Amino acid sequence: MDQHHEALAARAASARARPARGGGWRWALPALLLLAPFLLWPLGAMLWRGVAPDGVLSASALREVLGDRYYWERLGFTAGQAALSTAFAVAIGLPGAYVFAHIRFPGRALLRAAVTVPFVLPTLVVALAFQQLLGPQGWLNALLARFDAGPVRAVGTLWIILVAHVFYNVAIVIRIVAGVWANLDPRTEEAARVLGGGRLAVLRRVTLPALLPAIGSAAALVFTFTFTSFGVVLVLGAPGLDTLEVAIYRLATRLVQLPQAAVLAFVQLVATSTALMLYALFQRRSAAALALRADRARPLRRTSAAERLLLAIVVLVLGVLVLAPLAALVHGALTVGADGGVTAANFTRLFEDTGRSSYVPPLRALRWSLTFAAGAALIALVVGAAGATAVARARGRLALVVDALLMLPLAVPAVVLGFGYIVTFNRDPYDLRGSPWLVLLAHALVGYPFVVRSVLPVLRSIDPGLRDAARALGASGWRVWRFVELPIAARALLAGAVFAVAVSLGEFGATVLLRRQQFATLPIAIFEALGRPGDVNLGRALALATVLLAVTTASFLLIERLRYREVTEF
Amino acid sequence: MASLTVRGLERRFEDEAVALSGVSFHVPGGRVTALFGPSGCGKTTVLRLIAGLDRPDGGEVLIGGHDVLRIPAHRRDVGLMFQELALFPHLDVRRNIEFGLRMSKWPKRAREARVMQLLQLVGLPGLGQRRMHELSGGERQRVALARVLAPEPKLLLLDEPLGALDEPRKEELRAQLGELLRRLDTTAVVVSHDLRDAIALADDLVVMADGAVLQAGPLSLVLAAPASVAVARLLGWVTLAQGPVEHGRIVEPSVGAIAVPPGTDAGGQAQVLAHPASLLAVPGGMGLGSGVEGTVLRSSPEGPAHVLEIALGGRTVSRVRWEWDLAPPPVGSAVAIAARPGTLRFFRTIDDWEPVGHGAPAPVGGVEAAEDVAVVEDAEPQAGGVRGPGVA
Description:
The complex is a heterodimer. Chain A is mostly helical. In chain A, 75% of the residues lie in helices and 0% in strands. In chain A, α5 (69-102) packs across α11 (199-227), α10 runs antiparallel to α11 (199-227) and α17 runs antiparallel to α22. The A-B interface holds A 13-14, 16-18, 463, 465-466, 468-476, 479, 483-484, 487-488 and B 15-17, 48, 51-53, 72-75, 77-80, 82, 84, 86-91, 99-100, 102-104, 147-148, 151.
């Protein structure tokens, strides 16, 4: 073991001494070709509307937004709910991370996968699931009614939003923190114990400080995702409970107040960029602790009574948190409109043309969803693999800059991206309004960062000696990548691509703005059905959501099979 | 069978790489040269520069008479076997060996035949499908060797080819590698910090320390006649006596005196070195030996004789054979040291005895020495009554 660690340390030292050199910028080209026209330009055009509403510089929109209490409240609410969501996710995720990192129990792999499923679920599916669980007709109120307890009003409150956000993001905390925790050198803790530290003292003074970067990076990521929450808030929220993203959407679609929307978008961009920068900072620090340690440092060991109790609580909480809403969703799809019985009518009804102009044939929606997902994943694969290589080959500070630039799509709210496209690609010769290509590109943009994050740690862990060996055996720079780096990173690459598929399947914010009836995706179909009253439409939405759940879960289970050991940043 | 010429190679200190200053040597086509020196003296850096993995800050590298510095690593047609082996973990044995062949676009059939041939050559037939983690240390070493040999490079560079092995395996593979290199009749540079590797594998020896070449020449010549105290020390020679030259002898109080060859200036400081293999311990106080006496620190039976560890003045001369008697001399007793005729080397220094370990170029000269150093060839056999009476 020691020898092994020394070998790893030596390898790390030689990696520092001899970074792969040269030609790094060429690898950034595919990302730049995607980013410049389809992110930076529309984003710039969108922001320009804020500072120059009528084509000339003017602070009118800015003044209007800054002078309106309503927007300040939106900002306060957005930041507040994000902070609370993050706090809860960390509070629930930490014990979970401990359990996954330290305790071997039957069903560990299954629970680990189950907890992560929500992360890749489309927001609309999650929102619907919680409506079925906590809504007026939901499981909770049905249960309470049995005990003659009054109905609880959860929908339209802050609480249901928080619960949904925790449901969504607890996996991020668990995966990132457990990954580091499992690889912490147990000897430092043992040394602290021998030096007279009690369990709590060791936890507080040794373990938590070591975990802090991981917790920090997880928290920053959760904050980013919850700050930009859209679908969940749109469906489960109420007036007064709008996030900035929802406010932007309303401003732009209903009131056609693009300048004001642009100002809000700018505010949001600043917030998310800051959070993502914190994420990158923490990530680098915890990556230093984790560098190159693909093998777990801590053996999963026998458990104490206290740990078994903790295990029971964690399994129960996570199980209920994850399974209850999804079960309620499926149950709803099978029972709504069936007068107490079970029915497949909601599914068969999907194929009946309502005759409305907004009717989306489910098979066509599924086909478009899969088409976009496959295309976006393909683009994400190329852009992400090349981008990760660029970051891996860049030195020092340049690597940070390139990395940050590549992560930009995560900081740009999907709704803002959608609007950027609408205000940019609306003139000849690039009038792409109503073109499915824009949807595809938007999906690729939000998907490829996941490929980068999945592949980068693997690329960085490749012994530079292997590249030297390949070169000495006659491989040019490109062939070194093709025959050494690519095959080694292949599994991580595929896992990232499947993430991109999942993200594309669930993408809603940008798609809803770019949608056309002819190429509506499953989330759009759900949204359309939700917008109409009556059990029939609700049943239709639930059935569609169930289909989407099945497709996403299936694609996600692939990730779990393809994960390159436990080295990945997500 | 291309020749290799390295001329005035310079490399500035950067990160953890070792700096080189003016490294020059020549490897004639078909010969094997060992690059020998302590760890961290720049041997690996030289190989990386020859292979084109790093760029030198000055100097030139000629392969087959052609300057190759402008040719990128992958077109130099040089085979480099890495100390850490750097085998591809994602490929099996067969594909590792095949890698270079694919890069130089060999047709499939030729590739397959070549891989079979190499598996046979390195003694691993039937292991083609194994993954790297399923191999023993010795097997990995052989795969790395096969991989570097496969594309038939013009020039073979082996960096500590036996480095990662335990001692018994090392013995075994050393012999096989030596035989293989002779059979292949290829131009090769073997880097090692173990003199035994150099002796077993090489025709020529280049001795390096602190990023510079101290001496280069045919193996037997360098071994028999180290050009400086520094080289002699690296090759395992020990100092028999050091001190002022008086009346044609190096005199060291408490050790003794050894006659210097005629014509040596009197008055200067000098030292005389010998390789332990050419020394023999004989009873002290009887006028036997070369004129120096020491104290027995320890003795151990070895083969048919005994090996003594002997203190000479403040120094320890380790491992001198004792064949005088069936029993070793008691610890603490005085013994004299005899040297085989013609095996002593004399060096006269101007001011510094200890060039090794200070990092400065040795101020002691060699055979082709500068004028500030008087190098004296062997002492007269008068001092070396090695084959004395006794153990026959």
